[in-house]
Structure to design on (402 residues):
């Protein structure tokens, strides 16, 4: 069994273009794994005495688990890689004379097809649950868990549309272009927390906050961060600023939202979340060398390439995998670690035992819906022949990471 796997890995390795920066794909794979594991570990679906399902979080009951949010909140890495990929893709498209509308339409197609599929499935599921008298509270809980992560795609699409402007700004200012959205987030936080400005002002940070790593990714694509000095400075400075904001600035220690907590670092992003993202960005950039060496191993690279091929599908369906397991499990009663309240450390251990089940269900869903991520429409839009089996394509598309 091992030899066929190694032979396949060697074929994938040999088919990968030599100019591809495999560290980018490794970081994308790390980010998607962080999001998936984070949601599976900090989200509990609990059944109350009336049979209704509601969402709870062990972070609300077990503060010592807060460091989990420091490891598994990897959105800054997502936007860093996204900025790198989009900037490189746009630069290549512009050099070839590809119109902006054509370029943007091709990239949006990669987002819309898989999203429409998951929304369609859950729309039908909601109708079926309502007809089955599941109750509005239960239906709302389930739909919210599936739909709420889609905010990421809305922001990502908006930043992708702004890529030409971001690239132009980076060419003028270099990596310092990221200071502009950092200043915006700081000003918005000052208005919200010190000047009693309307809470709605905070939603400006949804774009400004994630524009920071996205801009740094565009700077990386433009040739910045060649050494380790600046990445290590970002890591140290971002970490120090995050600690200072939490200890003396009154920001929450958790880097994800916690039920019952008055302020969330993520919804909308705060200055603490942005500084934490700067630290993550610095660490990611500092690890490029070790990651490239690791990705030179065929088996490791083949695994990362496979995950990148279905990254969007994994992101869209991972919550469904957890909810499907939870719903089917109800037929056997309230199972520990699956339907019980996350109020003890024992729950965390029990939840770990369910992760392989979630993963198996997710694999089945990915195999069912992965074709939407690389549909024929994409190839027609690009007006080129379908890729040969010997060509490695990951979530970046036709050009490297783009």
């Amino acid at each position: 069994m091992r030899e066929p796997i190694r032979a396949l890995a060697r074929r994938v390795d040999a088919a990968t273009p030599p100019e591809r920066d495999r560290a980018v794909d490794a970081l994308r794979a790390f980010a998607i794994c962080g999001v998936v594991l984070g949601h599976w570990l900090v989200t509990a679906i609990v059944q109350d005495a009336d049979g209704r399902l509601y969402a709870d979080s062990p972070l609300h009951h077990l503060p010592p688990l807060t460091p989990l949010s420091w490891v598994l909140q990897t959105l800054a890495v997502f936007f860093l890689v996204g900025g790198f990929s989009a900037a490189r893709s746009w630069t290549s498209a512009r050099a070839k004379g590809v119109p902006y509308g054509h370029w943007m339409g091709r990239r949006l197609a990669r987002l819309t097809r898989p999203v429409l599929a998951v929304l369609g499935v859950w729309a039908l599921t909601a109708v079926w649950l309502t007809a089955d008298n599941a109750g509005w509270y239960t239906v709302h809980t389930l739909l919210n868990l599936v739909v709420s992560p889609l905010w990421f795609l809305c922001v990502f699409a908006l930043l992708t549309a702004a890529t030409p402007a971001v690239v132009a700004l980076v060419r003028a200012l270099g990596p310092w272009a990221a200071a502009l959205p950092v200043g915006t987030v700081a000003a918005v936080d000052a208005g919200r927390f010190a000047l009693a400005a309307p809470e709605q002002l905070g939603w400006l940070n949804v774009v400004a906050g994630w524009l920071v790593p996205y801009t740094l990714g565009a700077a990386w694509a433009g040739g910045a961060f060649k050494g380790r000095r600046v990445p290590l400075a970002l890591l140290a400075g971002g970490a120090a600023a995050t600690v200072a904001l939490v200890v003396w600035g009154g920001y929450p220690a958790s880097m994800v939202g916690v039920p019952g907590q008055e302020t969330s670092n993520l919804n909308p992003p705060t200055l603490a979340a942005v500084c934490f993202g700067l630290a993550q960005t610095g660490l990611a950039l500092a690890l490029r060398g070790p990651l490239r060496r690791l990705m030179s191993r065929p088996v490791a690279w083949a695994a990362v390439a496979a995950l990148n091929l279905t990254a969007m599908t994994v992101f869209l369906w991972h919550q469904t995998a957890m909810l499907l397991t939870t719903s089917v499990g109800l037929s056997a009663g309230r199972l520990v670690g699956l339907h019980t309240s996350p109020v003890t450390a024992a729950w965390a251990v029990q939840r770990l035992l369910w992760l392989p089940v979630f993963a198996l269900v997710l694999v089945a869903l990915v195999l069912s819906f992965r074709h939407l991520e690389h549909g024929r429409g994409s190839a027609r839009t690009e007006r080129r022949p379908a890729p040969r089996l010997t060509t490695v394509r990951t979530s970046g598309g036709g050009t490297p990471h783009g």
